[in-house]
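Recall that a protein's primary structure is simply its ordered list of amino acids. Everything else, from secondary elements to tertiary packing, is in principle encoded there. The following example makes that idea concrete.
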Amino acid sequence: MGRERLGSRLGFILLSAGCAIGCGNVWKFPWMVGENGGGAFVLVYLLCLVLLGLPAMTMEFALGRAAQASPVRMYQKLEKPGQKWHLHGYAALIGNVCLMAFYTVVTGWMMYYFVSFLTGNVDSLGFVNMISNPVINVSYLAIAVILGFFILTFRLQKGLEKATKYMMCALLILMLLLAVKSGTYEGAAEGYLFYLVPDFSKLNLSVVVAAMNQAFFTLSVGIGSMAIFGSYLGEDRSLLGESVNVVLLDSFVAIVAGLIIFPSCTAYGLQVTSGPALLFDTMSTVFLHVPGGRIWGSLFFLFMVFAAFSTELAVCENILACVRELTGWSRKKGCVICGIVVFLLALTTALGFGVIPFHPFGEGSSFLDFWDFIVSTNLLPLGALVIALFCTNQRFGWGWDKLVQEANKGRGLKIQNWMKPVFCIVVPAAILVIYVLGILSFF
């Protein structure tokens, strides 16, 4: 089975950014900003992206390109004889599957809100009403899974790359249009002030930790999601330079999402600290009050569909690539079987708000919390720690010299020797802190 290649550098950047850009940027980032004091959180978040996100992403890209394999085979090609780093490859595959066990349901929620606004059926809209309706959850889950794996049945360039290019370009256009519209609301200036001007009196340890956590997890580093695209990349461009492009695009989308949401909320006197409901209930209320709200609401949730679906496609491609390398299956056979497995597993989330009584962390928790705990709280940070240690430890892992040699191939921004303490000490230490604090705060 010959290794497929991406057709262009733009395709690689948009695919990688599409994987990173998702609900973490356009759903979680705004309500995290709202709950953590606004501009000060944004500033720390951007600093953490540079210090943590760039090195971590560069390392994962380097592993994928050097191995020319998916995560399940990646370490076996790079580790020394007798080592067990490759066990993380199987954990990465499990992590991607667990992520899709709830992310496909969330993608379905975005689709449902888009269809509701498009058809004008907004009277009964409500986040709680939606998640407690098993017909809505299962129907839109099926649409998300079937559409995603149908696109992946085509070869890499004609399926995933082509679809992602169209979606990402449309997403950026829609976001800019919505951001301009939000700026026209009376009272929008107050939202800009809260969002863009740091109030350092609100800066404390919990805000810093929250910003570190958001900066790290928004890039989807740790379960091989970036490594697979590195394996599809040629050697004509350096990986630190390409990581900068992906991080810039990812940050742009997150920042512009805030430029849409916060002016809208302050203009209509709505709370920006409403947490996860900020996207669904709060923004729906905004569009119900503005002239032409049905059109603007449709455009807003269409951009949300593109953001969520781009991540779903990227992660499902990772699952498919791993399974195909383990089994030798064709794309079409792999898509059918992987699609069925993802759908059946995601039914736990779709039915977990009433039909299946499962409360893993006490009353009010559900399967969504269970899968998110496995992936976000555990597999992502621990996986990123494994990648960082493997890439920077000369004796027990791949080693700094090989990392630099691989990452610096081609034109573009290079890793410099002065960066070694950041890659070898700062990044692993920060990841460990994020993990420990995440576990402590969770329980």
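The chain has one domain: 9-442. The chain has a mean pLDDT of 87.
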